[in-house]
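Batch manifest line 232
LIGAND: cytidine-5'-monophosphate
JOB: complex structure
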Amino acid sequence: MGKDVIIACDFASAEETFKFLDKFEGKKPFVKIGMELFYAEGPSIVREIKRRGHKIFLDLKLHDIPNTVKKAMAVLSRLDVDMTNLHAGGTIPMMQAALEGLTRPDGTRPILIAVTQLTSTDQETMTRDLLIDAPVAEVVMHYAGNAKAAGLDGVVCSPLEAGKVHEKCGAGFVTVTPGVRFADGDKGDQKRVMTPAEARKVGSDYIVVGRPITAAADPVAAYERCVNEFVG
Ligand code: C5P
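JOB STATUS: finished
ARTIFACT:
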């Protein structure tokens, strides 16, 4: 898997997104499209960004019965995205069905990764609301193991967990890590952060970076700084 920086395009409209992407001129960064933009603009936003030559991580975090997820994944695969995801909490049969749906007739498919426990779910909430008594760190690693067992390519995780995930699931199991900040930057609402250079050291395969690039005075320079620190 090639190391790359994925820009989280957390914008509310196509207009704002294209205004941002136009700044990159000849460059074609890998972009993440999340629920807000996808639900606002629909599949046309994916087609248009793809037409402009970008790779796309479609971050819709599917979670439903296996048959529904399989059919939804087949639709996303036809949209020609490069990476997409689901909740490992949907269990192994759901993840296996997702892979089947995602696989095109020629055998190719987008990279499929799993969200383990959301970082917004802490120990107290998990125990109280989900009745899961195991420690969060153990649950995260167990879900990563389930994703691997189901045949997925990797997980979304904190860069702080990337090393452990590789130890358990193998060096080829992809870690996609948000929570990245420049050493001299604003943390915003992210609590446990790493710089792009640190994320590289711990073995993250892809870093997902939003505001340090999208809210920068010079987004192209901020993107290039990320790439230099992370990819070298
Ligand atoms: O702006 P910022 O760099 O914090 O953006 C990080 C991106 O990664 C956002 O799109 C956010 O939703 C996503 N993300 C995250 N933490 C997770 C999972 C996804 O920050 N655990």
